[in-house]
Amino acid sequence: MNRTLLCLFASLCLATPQHSWGKTPQKFALVIHGGAGSVTRENMSPEKEVLYRTTMEDVLQIGYAILKNGGTSMDAVESTIRIMEDSPLFNAGKGAVFTSVGTNELDASIMDGSTLQAGAVAGVKTVKNPISAARKVMEETWHVLLAGQGADHFAKEAGLEIVDPNYFSTKQRRQEQSEKVKEKHGTVGCVALDTYGNLAAGTSTGGLSNKRWGRIGDSPIIGAGTYANNKTCAVSCTGEGEYFIRGNIAYDVSALMEYRRMPVNRAVQKVIDKLTDHGGTGGLIALDHRGQIAMSFNTPGMYRGYILENGNPEILFFTEE
Ligand code: ASP
Fold first, then answer.
1. Is the whole model's pTM more than 0.90, yes or no?
2. 84-103 pLDDT, tens per residue?
């Protein structure tokens, strides 16, 4: 093989498929998701689309302001997820789905990619913003995961806002409950890179609709639903939690980047392919330390959006976008 051919061959081998977003290294970036599932044009009325778009744009703008003004990725992740928890549009905080016995049991986790510290709560029933409880677990205890009554009690002691268990209930979710809708997705998540080069990831959910009471999904499990490591990437997942737990989905993206030197978009695609092979459905968002974004799913759609240094929010819903 002559020299020119050799060079051409080498550059083809090194070329990795790049998404159109985040090609240029970014000083900071933020990506959110609002769950994967049957998000299709047919299921989306113009009013519903506007509602999701405006809410998600607001969320991105708030995250952007934090990062642009020198806030940390942990602050951006917590603040943006809190807004989505407060919105009845998503299956997290207010608007969470019901268990089979009509309760709301919430899971959340957060991870700091600069220290590899993490915190999570599972099955909480009275904490208005589970993501903040997850952060408190990380910062104020030597544990990673608190569950059930102990987690509710801890959040109260930590000074977080406590609400009546009925606060989370909405009319729409009641209807889904009575129709025995299964696998209602709508979990929220955020990954962020700050100007200090630190990555963070967080996820918050009401879990799967009509789940057994006491069931815990992937969202509060570090390595399954959430993972962040400055050396590789930050990841937040959504979908059928049981598959994400068994597949160590969030950590797998990071491991492929660390051990196989894959770029984030290839690692994400490989992991989604694995999820599909195992029969699971869902998706994930990921962000690497240079601000490269990957968002992938094997469902008809996923609520997702991102904002980069230029400050233009981008929102996407469907597969073909
Ligand atoms: N992963 C969540 C769970 O299994 C649900 C979802 O993302 O829609 O609890």
1. yes
2. 999 999 999 999 999 999 99
Q: Give the pLDDT confidence of 216-269 residue by residue, as tens digits.
A: 999 999 999 999 999 999 999 999 999 999 999 999 999 999 999 999 999 999
**What are the residue boundaries of the structural domains of the chain, listed by start?**
26-307
Given ligand 1 and candidates 106, 208, 215, 237, which is best to mutate, with the most ligand atoms within 8 Å of its CB? Answer: 208
Collapsing DSSP to helix, strand or coil, 219 comes out as: coil
- What is the rounded distance in angstroms from the CA atom of residue 195 to the CA atom of residue 40? 35
Ligand 1: residue of 38, 84, 218, 297 to mutate (most ligand atoms within 8 A of CB) is: 218
The finding on whether 299 has its CB within 6 A of some atom of ligand 1 is no
123 ligand 1 Cβ < 6 A: no
DSSP classification of residue 28: -
Identity of the amino acid at 285 = I
Fold that domain 26-307 belongs to in CATH:
Glutamine Phosphoribosylpyrophosphate, subunit 1, domain 1 (3.60.20)
How far is Cα 132 from Cα 110, in angstroms, rounded to an integer?
Answer: 9
Which residue numbers are catalytic? 187
Distance from Cα 179 to the centre of ligand 1, integer Å:
19
